[in-house]
Amino acid sequence: MSGHTQRLLTGTFDNVAWSPDGAHILLHGAGQWRVYTSSGAPVMMWADAGVGAVAWWSPDGRAVLARSATTLALATLANTVVTPLATFTDAATGAPVMGAYPLTGSPWSGDGQRIALVARGVRWHDGTLLVTKASAGTGLYIVPVAATATPPKLIDWGEHTGLSWSTPDPNTQLLAP
Known about the structure:
By secondary structure, the chain is mainly beta. The protein has strands spanning 15-18, 24-29, 32-37, 42-47, 54-57, 63-67, 71-76, 81-87, 99-101, 114-120, 122-124, 129-130, 138-144, 153-158, 164-165, 174-175.
C-alpha cells in the first residue's frame, strides 16, 4: 500500500463502523451516536444511553439500527431522522429488561427492507408489548422498515440464542438457533 493518511476526527469512541459503501463513518462515544461523511463533515447525531451501545448499517448504507441498554432506534441519513422503535424497560418499574437483540450477524435482510429481532419483554414505540406464545422464552420478530409504525410480526417463539439471515436473497428467511 502506498498513499497518505489524513486525520478526520479525534475523540474517544467505544464503537466505530464504516458504512458498507465507505461514504460515511458511524461513531459512538460520550452518550451520542454521530455520523460523518468520509471527509469528516457531520451528517447527524443523536443521544444514546451510553457505553455498550451497538449499531448496524443497512446494506445500502442509508440507515443505521442502533441498540442501547434501554432503546432500539432507526436513524435515516437522507432526512436525518431518528425513529425510536422499542424500549427495554418494565412499564411498571422502569427497570431495564432483556430487550431485543441480534446476537449473530446483521439484523438487516439482504435487501435492507426488513429487520429481524430476538426479543423478550420489549415494548414497541406505540406501547404494544411484544409477547411470545409462552411465558418463558423469546420471540423472533420481523420488522418491515417501511412500516416501523406497526408493531413487528411474531414469527417464532422459544429459547432463541441468536439469529442470522441465511443469505442476502430478500426472499430467504432466517436461521434461528
